Amino acid sequence: MALPYYVSPEQMMQDRAEYAKKGIAKGRSIIAMEYSDGVLFVADNPSASLFKISEIYDSIAFSGAGRYSEFENLRKAGIQHADVKGMMYSREDVTARSLANGYSQILGTLFSQEMKPYEVELLLAQVGETPERNELYRISFDGSIVDERKFTAIGGRSESILTLLRKEIPQTCPSLKEALTLCQHAFEHGADPRSNLEGLEVALLDRTRIGRRFRRVPILEATQILS
Amino acid sequence: MNSENVSFPNFSTDPCSSFYQYLTSQRPDLLPMARWGNSLPHEGQTDPSLISTRHLPWPHGTTVLAFTYDKGVLIAGDRRATEGFQIAANRMEKVFQTDGFSAMAIAGAAGPCVEMAKLFRIELEHYEKLDGQPLTCEGKANRLGHMVKANFPMVLHGLVVIPLFVGYDHKREIGRLFKYDITGGRYEDTDFHAVGSGGKDARSTLKEYFRKSLPEDTAVKVALRALFNAADEDVGTGGPDLVRRIFPTVKLVDSGGVRDVDDTQLAEVCEALVNRKQET
User: Fold this and answer.
1) Which of A174, B50, B207, B228 has its CA 20 to 30 A from that of A212?
2) Nearest to B192 by CA among B64, B74, B75, B67
3) How far apart are CA B279 and CA B273, in angstroms?
4) B184: distance to nearest CA of chain A, Å?
5) What pLDDT was estimated at residue B52?
6) Residues B261, B248 contacting (CB under 8 angstroms)
7) Which pLDDT belongs to residue A113?
8) Is B132's Cβ below 8 Å from some Cβ in A?
């Protein structure tokens, strides 16, 4: 009788983590950065129709790096959760914190119980009424969740981008122009030297808007902001 | 080759872009008709006595109207809600913006009406978020038709919801308006329509004053006149209240989006209407 191979739990988790990290390393990066009027999202995304950044609720945006089909499923689940919650209670009761917790639960369970973990990293942001009340969350493939300030990045080249941003981020909250310039600079020097504005997807959570704060910024407008 | 052997994967397990469908399959307890539990008559079991004159499926109170003007479409409604012979509210909103380029107005039982407007707004937003682009004007109108149809069991209990839907069609570059019947039937109107207990009176006024491609300020005047005349004839419709400064709601939907006509303009037109009545 053939005995099943024994694999220690440590080894199993390590293998899964390595597998997931490998998948994410192939993914392009996304930066979220607080600016004076809200939160700016910039993604390295050459496609003009398949988005990496999307609206979840009035003041919450989502973006995912890694395997498209997997973060797309999580995005849809988030929208459904938010819409149901907003309908049951009130629109103000939908928060990024509870969504981030939900994502963390899902990813944590998938990581420890499924054969194949999700190869994704998520970024969730909520724009607050004041800059101090902005929230940024980064959620990893194993469900670990990090609450960030000022800026954060996910995806394959996130480490080098973060190192660069840590050095160059100004003390005070940057304006939209400064933030966008900084993000573009980070992509150019931290991720891909060939990256230009045409290959970026830009979106905002703009505090000054009424109701739905999420807005996509077309490349033409992004060029004008930078000039 | 036998084509029957070829099987295609289907998308049926994918999350649906419709919020209403999602609630139906996942959270039926949150649907507007959930409050009826199992007491709803099932198909083929409908008690004919329910459809008696006592439960005549017709909206009580309210006049809401919509018509096209040169840049798009206008939608307006009075502010009164009634409970029998009592006035339940005199500041009720019956015209709702449903997304960036559409609005709806409702006549019927207040609770389900407001609930349907709220659900429809979420439905459109949900679709837009999941799909990455908004529904077309036609698509929105059809979606609302499905919701009215789903409300039919409640109609048998006397809880009627009759909406009017208006939207700006970016492809055709015109404002469009749609009316519905209680079974969810959807009919497009090119000129004007009004529903509610004062709907008939409003329609007669509109018939008289409506012209194709009216300019915006004239359109507002015509809308307020129609509501004023309806309030004159119908107890369920509230006229402009110059004492408490309550005026009807008027919204304009055009290529720039949905706008409210502000109270100063409404007050001016309403005062002119009242003054004209006093002179005659």
Assistant:
1) A174
2) B67
3) 10
4) 23
5) 46
6) no
7) 87
8) yes
CA distance B68 to B176: 7
Q: What pLDDT, on the 0 to 100 scale, is given for residue B55?
A: 47
As a whole number of angstroms, the distance between CA A98 and CA A89 comes to 14
| Extended beta strands in chain A, E state | 30-35, 38-44, 53-57, 60-66, 120-126, 135-139, 145-148, 151-154, 200-206, 214-217
d(CA B110, CA B91): 13
Please choose, from the candidates A43, A31, A36, the residue with its C-alpha nearest in 3D space to the C-alpha of residue A178.
A36
Query: Domains of chain A (ranges plus CATH)?
Result: 24-226 (3.60.20.10)
- pLDDT digit string, tens, across residues A144-178: 999 999 999 998 888 889 999 998 888 888 999 99
Q: What is the SS3 assignment for A68?
A: helix
In this complex, do B15 and A73 lie within 8 Å of one another by their Cβ atoms?
yes
CB B144 within 8 A of CB B136: no
Instruction: Please tell me which residue of chain A has the smallest CA distance to B133.
Output: A49
Give the number of other Cβ atoms within 10 Å of residue A149's Cβ. Answer: 10
Using an 8 Å CB-CB cutoff, list chain A residues near B27.
Answer: 84
Taken in order of first residue, the domains within chain B and their CATH numbers are 58-279 (3.60.20.10)
Q: How many residues does chain B have?
A: 280
Which residues from chain A sit within 8 angstroms of residue B13, using beta carbons? none
CA distance B270 to B280: 16
Show the tokens assigned to B129. Answer: 């978020």
Residues of chain B scoring pLDDT < 50: 1-3, 37-38, 43, 51-59
Q: Are A31 and A152 in contact (CB under 8 A)?
A: yes
**Cβ-nearest to A80 among B15, B118, B132:** B15
Averaged pLDDT, A90-104: 94
Residues 55..114 of A with a Cβ closer than 8 Å to B: which? 55-56, 73, 76-77, 79-80, 83-84, 86-88
User: CB distance from B126 to chain A under 8 Å?
Assistant: yes
Residues in chain B with CB shorter than 8 Å from the CB of A55 are 129
pLDDT at B36: 56
Partner A contacted by B129 (CB < 8 A): yes
Statement: residue A195 has pLDDT above 80? no
Strands (E), A2-59: 30-35, 38-44, 53-57
Each residue's pLDDT tens digit, B16-75: 788 888 888 888 888 876 655 445 555 455 555 554 444 444 446 789 999 999 999 999
Q: Which of B109, B106, B176 is nearest to B141 (CA)?
A: B176
